[in-house]
Amino acid sequence: MGGLRALAPRPLPHPRRQPARPGRGARPAQRPRPVHPARRGRLDLGGALVRHHGLLARREGPVLRAVRRQAVPAPDVLRDPGGGEAPVSTPETTAAPAASPISRAAAIALGDDALVLSHRLGEWAGHAPVLEEEVALANIALDLLGQARVLLSLVGDEDELAYLREERAFRNLQLVEQPNGDFAHTIVRQLYFSTYQHLLYAELAAGGGPFAPLAAKAVKEVAYHRDHAEQWTLRLGDGTEESHARMLRACEALWRFTGEMFQPVEGVEVDGERMEAAWLASVGEILRRATLGVPEGPRSGAWAAGAGRQGLHTEPFGRMLAEMQHLHRSHPGASW
Protein backbone atom coordinates (compact mmCIF):
# COMPACT_ATOMS: atom_id res chain seq x y z
CA MET A 1 0.00 0.00 0.00
CA GLY A 2 2.38 2.74 -1.12
CA GLY A 3 4.71 3.88 1.70
CA LEU A 4 3.05 1.81 4.43
CA ARG A 5 5.15 -0.97 5.88
CA ALA A 6 3.80 -4.02 7.63
CA LEU A 7 4.82 -4.37 11.26
CA ALA A 8 6.82 -7.39 12.26
CA PRO A 9 4.64 -9.96 14.05
CA ARG A 10 5.06 -9.93 17.79
CA PRO A 11 6.11 -13.32 19.17
CA LEU A 12 3.52 -14.87 21.47
CA PRO A 13 4.51 -17.08 24.38
CA HIS A 14 3.45 -20.69 24.43
CA PRO A 15 0.07 -21.10 26.18
CA ARG A 16 1.46 -23.64 28.62
CA ARG A 17 3.48 -22.58 31.69
CA GLN A 18 2.27 -18.98 31.49
CA PRO A 19 1.95 -17.06 34.76
CA ALA A 20 -1.59 -16.99 36.05
CA ARG A 21 -3.35 -13.62 36.06
CA PRO A 22 -3.35 -11.97 39.50
CA GLY A 23 -6.63 -11.90 41.31
CA ARG A 24 -8.51 -8.89 42.64
CA GLY A 25 -6.80 -8.89 46.03
CA ALA A 26 -3.24 -8.05 46.97
CA ARG A 27 -2.31 -11.71 47.08
CA PRO A 28 0.74 -12.82 45.13
CA ALA A 29 0.23 -14.37 41.76
CA GLN A 30 -0.38 -18.10 41.66
CA ARG A 31 2.37 -20.35 40.54
CA PRO A 32 2.61 -21.14 36.85
CA ARG A 33 0.48 -24.16 35.90
CA PRO A 34 -0.70 -25.90 32.73
CA VAL A 35 -3.73 -24.45 30.99
CA HIS A 36 -5.44 -27.87 30.97
CA PRO A 37 -4.53 -29.69 34.16
CA ALA A 38 -4.47 -33.46 34.11
CA ARG A 39 -7.55 -35.19 35.48
CA ARG A 40 -6.95 -37.33 38.53
CA GLY A 41 -8.72 -40.39 39.76
CA ARG A 42 -10.81 -42.93 37.89
CA LEU A 43 -12.03 -41.80 34.50
CA ASP A 44 -15.47 -43.16 33.57
CA LEU A 45 -15.41 -44.33 29.98
CA GLY A 46 -18.92 -45.82 29.99
CA GLY A 47 -20.06 -49.38 29.74
CA ALA A 48 -19.62 -51.91 26.99
CA LEU A 49 -21.29 -51.02 23.67
CA VAL A 50 -24.39 -53.10 23.10
CA ARG A 51 -25.03 -53.45 19.39
CA HIS A 52 -28.57 -52.63 18.31
CA HIS A 53 -30.24 -55.58 16.63
CA GLY A 54 -31.25 -53.38 13.71
CA LEU A 55 -27.71 -52.37 12.80
CA LEU A 56 -25.53 -54.15 10.30
CA ALA A 57 -22.44 -55.98 11.50
CA ARG A 58 -19.39 -53.75 12.11
CA ARG A 59 -21.45 -50.64 11.23
CA GLU A 60 -22.28 -49.38 14.75
CA GLY A 61 -21.92 -45.70 14.02
CA PRO A 62 -24.11 -42.73 13.21
CA VAL A 63 -27.58 -43.46 11.95
CA LEU A 64 -27.15 -41.53 8.68
CA ARG A 65 -24.08 -41.79 6.46
CA ALA A 66 -22.94 -40.19 3.25
CA VAL A 67 -23.25 -43.45 1.36
CA ARG A 68 -26.03 -45.07 -0.58
CA ARG A 69 -26.93 -47.71 1.98
CA GLN A 70 -27.78 -46.74 5.52
CA ALA A 71 -27.01 -49.05 8.40
CA VAL A 72 -30.42 -48.53 9.99
CA PRO A 73 -33.30 -50.26 8.19
CA ALA A 74 -36.58 -48.57 7.39
CA PRO A 75 -38.38 -49.60 10.64
CA ASP A 76 -35.86 -47.51 12.60
CA VAL A 77 -36.13 -44.45 10.32
CA LEU A 78 -39.75 -44.31 9.14
CA ARG A 79 -42.85 -44.20 11.26
CA ASP A 80 -45.18 -47.14 10.60
CA PRO A 81 -43.40 -48.33 7.43
CA GLY A 82 -44.87 -50.92 5.13
CA GLY A 83 -48.45 -49.81 5.58
CA GLY A 84 -49.10 -49.12 1.90
CA GLU A 85 -49.00 -51.22 -1.21
CA ALA A 86 -45.73 -52.19 -2.83
CA PRO A 87 -44.67 -49.71 -5.52
CA VAL A 88 -44.91 -50.60 -9.18
CA SER A 89 -41.14 -50.58 -9.75
CA THR A 90 -40.29 -53.67 -7.70
CA PRO A 91 -37.96 -56.54 -8.70
CA GLU A 92 -40.77 -59.05 -9.11
CA THR A 93 -42.58 -56.66 -11.44
CA THR A 94 -39.57 -56.01 -13.66
CA ALA A 95 -38.20 -59.55 -13.73
CA ALA A 96 -40.15 -60.89 -16.70
CA PRO A 97 -39.11 -59.33 -20.02
CA ALA A 98 -41.50 -58.79 -22.88
CA ALA A 99 -41.16 -61.95 -24.92
CA SER A 100 -42.34 -60.97 -28.40
CA PRO A 101 -41.80 -57.96 -30.65
CA ILE A 102 -45.53 -57.26 -30.40
CA SER A 103 -45.29 -57.08 -26.60
CA ARG A 104 -42.23 -54.84 -26.89
CA ALA A 105 -44.14 -52.41 -29.12
CA ALA A 106 -47.00 -52.34 -26.65
CA ALA A 107 -44.61 -51.75 -23.75
CA ILE A 108 -43.10 -48.76 -25.53
CA ALA A 109 -46.53 -47.28 -26.30
CA LEU A 110 -47.82 -47.61 -22.73
CA GLY A 111 -44.47 -46.60 -21.25
CA ASP A 112 -44.30 -43.47 -23.38
CA ASP A 113 -47.80 -42.47 -22.23
CA ALA A 114 -46.74 -42.65 -18.59
CA LEU A 115 -43.33 -41.04 -19.16
CA VAL A 116 -44.59 -38.01 -21.08
CA LEU A 117 -47.49 -37.31 -18.74
CA SER A 118 -45.24 -37.65 -15.69
CA HIS A 119 -42.97 -34.97 -17.14
CA ARG A 120 -45.91 -32.69 -17.89
CA LEU A 121 -47.19 -33.01 -14.31
CA GLY A 122 -43.67 -32.46 -12.97
CA GLU A 123 -43.71 -29.05 -14.63
CA TRP A 124 -46.19 -27.95 -11.96
CA ALA A 125 -43.51 -28.21 -9.25
CA GLY A 126 -43.23 -24.76 -7.72
CA HIS A 127 -46.17 -23.42 -9.74
CA ALA A 128 -49.28 -25.20 -8.43
CA PRO A 129 -52.06 -23.02 -6.99
CA VAL A 130 -51.68 -24.44 -3.47
CA LEU A 131 -48.94 -26.40 -1.71
CA GLU A 132 -51.13 -29.43 -1.09
CA GLU A 133 -51.97 -29.68 -4.77
CA GLU A 134 -48.32 -29.33 -5.72
CA VAL A 135 -47.53 -32.40 -3.58
CA ALA A 136 -50.49 -34.33 -5.04
CA LEU A 137 -49.44 -33.66 -8.64
CA ALA A 138 -45.84 -34.58 -7.82
CA ASN A 139 -47.00 -37.90 -6.33
CA ILE A 140 -49.07 -38.68 -9.41
CA ALA A 141 -46.07 -37.83 -11.60
CA LEU A 142 -43.88 -40.21 -9.58
CA ASP A 143 -46.47 -42.99 -9.89
CA LEU A 144 -46.49 -42.56 -13.65
CA LEU A 145 -42.70 -42.43 -13.78
CA GLY A 146 -42.50 -45.74 -11.91
CA GLN A 147 -44.88 -47.31 -14.43
CA ALA A 148 -42.83 -45.91 -17.31
CA ARG A 149 -39.59 -47.31 -15.91
CA VAL A 150 -41.05 -50.80 -15.60
CA LEU A 151 -42.56 -50.77 -19.09
CA LEU A 152 -39.49 -49.34 -20.83
CA SER A 153 -37.17 -51.72 -18.99
CA LEU A 154 -39.06 -54.59 -20.62
CA VAL A 155 -37.69 -53.34 -23.94
CA GLY A 156 -34.17 -52.11 -23.16
CA ASP A 157 -32.27 -49.50 -21.21
CA GLU A 158 -34.84 -47.11 -19.78
CA ASP A 159 -32.49 -44.09 -19.80
CA GLU A 160 -31.55 -44.54 -23.44
CA LEU A 161 -35.18 -44.97 -24.43
CA ALA A 162 -36.23 -41.87 -22.50
CA TYR A 163 -33.38 -39.51 -23.35
CA LEU A 164 -31.83 -40.60 -26.64
CA ARG A 165 -34.78 -41.25 -28.92
CA GLU A 166 -35.93 -38.70 -31.46
CA GLU A 167 -39.44 -37.27 -31.51
CA ARG A 168 -40.75 -39.61 -34.20
CA ALA A 169 -39.64 -42.65 -32.20
CA PHE A 170 -42.06 -41.93 -29.33
CA ARG A 171 -45.41 -43.73 -29.42
CA ASN A 172 -47.37 -41.85 -26.76
CA LEU A 173 -50.89 -40.51 -27.15
CA GLN A 174 -51.18 -36.94 -28.32
CA LEU A 175 -53.41 -36.20 -25.32
CA VAL A 176 -50.66 -36.65 -22.72
CA GLU A 177 -48.21 -34.36 -24.52
CA GLN A 178 -50.53 -31.34 -24.49
CA PRO A 179 -49.21 -28.38 -22.44
CA ASN A 180 -50.44 -27.93 -18.90
CA GLY A 181 -52.14 -24.63 -19.64
CA ASP A 182 -54.03 -23.42 -16.60
CA PHE A 183 -55.03 -25.66 -13.71
CA ALA A 184 -58.40 -26.47 -15.27
CA HIS A 185 -56.66 -27.65 -18.45
CA THR A 186 -54.43 -29.98 -16.44
CA ILE A 187 -57.37 -31.41 -14.49
CA VAL A 188 -59.41 -32.15 -17.62
CA ARG A 189 -56.43 -33.82 -19.29
CA GLN A 190 -55.93 -35.90 -16.16
CA LEU A 191 -59.61 -36.84 -16.01
CA TYR A 192 -59.66 -38.03 -19.62
CA PHE A 193 -56.43 -40.02 -19.38
CA SER A 194 -56.71 -41.49 -15.87
CA THR A 195 -60.22 -42.78 -16.59
CA TYR A 196 -58.89 -44.48 -19.72
CA GLN A 197 -55.80 -45.81 -17.96
CA HIS A 198 -57.83 -47.25 -15.10
CA LEU A 199 -60.07 -49.14 -17.52
CA LEU A 200 -57.02 -50.32 -19.49
CA TYR A 201 -55.09 -51.63 -16.49
CA ALA A 202 -58.19 -53.34 -15.09
CA GLU A 203 -58.57 -55.21 -18.39
CA LEU A 204 -54.86 -56.10 -18.57
CA ALA A 205 -54.78 -57.30 -14.95
CA ALA A 206 -57.72 -59.61 -15.58
CA GLY A 207 -56.32 -60.92 -18.85
CA GLY A 208 -53.20 -62.65 -17.51
CA GLY A 209 -50.91 -61.47 -20.33
CA PRO A 210 -47.32 -60.19 -20.05
CA PHE A 211 -48.52 -56.89 -18.57
CA ALA A 212 -50.77 -58.43 -15.91
CA PRO A 213 -48.28 -58.10 -12.97
CA LEU A 214 -47.69 -54.43 -13.70
CA ALA A 215 -51.36 -53.70 -14.32
CA ALA A 216 -52.45 -55.38 -11.08
CA LYS A 217 -50.25 -52.99 -9.09
CA ALA A 218 -50.74 -49.89 -11.21
CA VAL A 219 -54.55 -50.08 -11.24
CA LYS A 220 -54.57 -49.18 -7.54
CA GLU A 221 -52.44 -46.11 -8.16
CA VAL A 222 -54.48 -45.02 -11.15
CA ALA A 223 -57.70 -45.31 -9.13
CA TYR A 224 -56.36 -42.51 -6.94
CA HIS A 225 -55.38 -40.47 -10.02
CA ARG A 226 -58.91 -40.77 -11.39
CA ASP A 227 -60.52 -39.89 -8.06
CA HIS A 228 -58.26 -36.84 -7.70
CA ALA A 229 -59.21 -35.58 -11.16
CA GLU A 230 -62.90 -36.30 -10.56
CA GLN A 231 -63.03 -34.32 -7.31
CA TRP A 232 -61.34 -31.31 -8.87
CA THR A 233 -63.63 -31.50 -11.94
CA LEU A 234 -66.69 -31.33 -9.70
CA ARG A 235 -65.18 -28.56 -7.61
CA LEU A 236 -64.16 -26.34 -10.52
CA GLY A 237 -67.03 -27.15 -12.87
CA ASP A 238 -69.69 -26.39 -10.27
CA GLY A 239 -67.71 -23.55 -8.68
CA THR A 240 -67.44 -19.92 -9.69
CA GLU A 241 -68.31 -18.49 -13.09
CA GLU A 242 -64.60 -18.16 -13.87
CA SER A 243 -63.74 -21.76 -12.92
CA HIS A 244 -66.78 -23.05 -14.83
CA ALA A 245 -65.79 -21.13 -17.97
CA ARG A 246 -62.19 -22.37 -17.81
CA MET A 247 -63.31 -25.98 -17.39
CA LEU A 248 -65.63 -25.66 -20.39
CA ARG A 249 -62.79 -24.36 -22.55
CA ALA A 250 -60.49 -27.18 -21.40
CA CYS A 251 -63.09 -29.88 -22.06
CA GLU A 252 -63.68 -28.60 -25.58
CA ALA A 253 -59.96 -28.15 -26.37
CA LEU A 254 -58.90 -31.65 -25.28
CA TRP A 255 -61.94 -33.58 -26.47
CA ARG A 256 -60.54 -34.05 -29.96
CA PHE A 257 -57.56 -36.01 -28.58
CA THR A 258 -59.67 -38.64 -26.80
CA GLY A 259 -60.57 -40.80 -29.81
CA GLU A 260 -56.96 -41.96 -30.18
CA MET A 261 -57.00 -43.75 -26.83
CA PHE A 262 -59.20 -46.58 -28.10
CA GLN A 263 -57.45 -47.34 -31.36
CA PRO A 264 -55.96 -50.88 -31.45
CA VAL A 265 -52.37 -51.30 -30.25
CA GLU A 266 -50.49 -54.48 -31.13
CA GLY A 267 -49.84 -56.50 -28.00
CA VAL A 268 -52.53 -54.78 -25.89
CA GLU A 269 -55.27 -57.39 -25.83
CA VAL A 270 -58.34 -55.49 -24.66
CA ASP A 271 -61.82 -54.91 -26.00
CA GLY A 272 -61.47 -51.36 -27.31
CA GLU A 273 -65.15 -50.85 -28.09
CA ARG A 274 -66.27 -51.95 -24.64
CA MET A 275 -63.60 -49.77 -23.02
CA GLU A 276 -64.67 -46.78 -25.07
CA ALA A 277 -68.31 -47.21 -24.08
CA ALA A 278 -67.34 -47.49 -20.41
CA TRP A 279 -65.09 -44.41 -20.72
CA LEU A 280 -67.83 -42.32 -22.34
CA ALA A 281 -70.30 -43.35 -19.65
CA SER A 282 -67.91 -42.60 -16.78
CA VAL A 283 -66.55 -39.29 -18.09
CA GLY A 284 -69.99 -38.17 -19.27
CA GLU A 285 -71.51 -38.79 -15.84
CA ILE A 286 -68.74 -36.80 -14.11
CA LEU A 287 -69.06 -33.90 -16.54
CA ARG A 288 -72.82 -33.77 -16.09
CA ARG A 289 -72.46 -33.74 -12.31
CA ALA A 290 -70.01 -30.86 -12.70
CA THR A 291 -72.63 -28.96 -14.78
CA LEU A 292 -70.29 -29.03 -17.76
CA GLY A 293 -71.93 -31.44 -20.18
CA VAL A 294 -70.26 -33.66 -22.76
CA PRO A 295 -68.56 -31.77 -25.62
CA GLU A 296 -70.24 -32.14 -28.99
CA GLY A 297 -67.14 -31.80 -31.17
CA PRO A 298 -65.34 -34.66 -32.97
CA ARG A 299 -63.05 -36.91 -30.91
CA SER A 300 -60.21 -36.85 -33.43
CA GLY A 301 -58.09 -34.03 -34.82
CA ALA A 302 -56.96 -33.13 -38.31
CA TRP A 303 -54.85 -36.29 -38.44
CA ALA A 304 -56.44 -39.71 -38.27
CA ALA A 305 -56.93 -41.07 -34.77
CA GLY A 306 -53.89 -43.03 -33.66
CA ALA A 307 -51.35 -40.56 -34.99
CA GLY A 308 -49.39 -40.47 -31.73
CA ARG A 309 -48.99 -44.25 -31.86
CA GLN A 310 -47.51 -43.80 -35.34
CA GLY A 311 -44.93 -41.26 -34.16
CA LEU A 312 -46.79 -38.15 -35.33
CA HIS A 313 -46.95 -35.56 -32.56
CA THR A 314 -48.15 -32.05 -31.98
CA GLU A 315 -45.85 -29.04 -31.95
CA PRO A 316 -45.62 -28.66 -28.13
CA PHE A 317 -44.17 -32.16 -27.81
CA GLY A 318 -40.93 -31.23 -29.58
CA ARG A 319 -40.28 -28.37 -27.16
CA MET A 320 -41.10 -30.55 -24.17
CA LEU A 321 -38.80 -33.31 -25.40
CA ALA A 322 -35.90 -30.89 -25.91
CA GLU A 323 -36.23 -29.73 -22.32
CA MET A 324 -36.57 -33.27 -20.95
CA GLN A 325 -33.51 -34.60 -22.81
CA HIS A 326 -31.27 -31.55 -22.54
CA LEU A 327 -29.25 -32.53 -19.47
CA HIS A 328 -28.65 -36.13 -20.53
CA ARG A 329 -27.57 -35.15 -24.03
CA SER A 330 -25.36 -32.30 -22.75
CA HIS A 331 -23.44 -34.62 -20.42
CA PRO A 332 -23.49 -38.12 -21.98
CA GLY A 333 -22.34 -40.86 -19.67
CA ALA A 334 -22.44 -38.67 -16.56
CA SER A 335 -23.51 -40.30 -13.29
CA TRP A 336 -24.25 -39.06 -9.80
TrEMBL record:
GO terms for biological process: phenylacetate catabolic process. Residues 20-29, 86-99 have a biased composition (Low complexity). InterPro entries: Aromatic_CoA_ox/epox (IPR052703), Ferritin-like (IPR012347), Ferritin-like_SF (IPR009078), PaaA_PaaC (IPR007814), PaaC (IPR011882). Residues 1-42, 74-99 are annotated as: Disordered. One of its GO terms (cellular component) is cytosol. It comes from the Bacteria. This is Phenylacetic acid degradation protein. The lineage of its organism: Bacteria, Bacillati, Actinomycetota, Actinomycetes, Kitasatosporales.
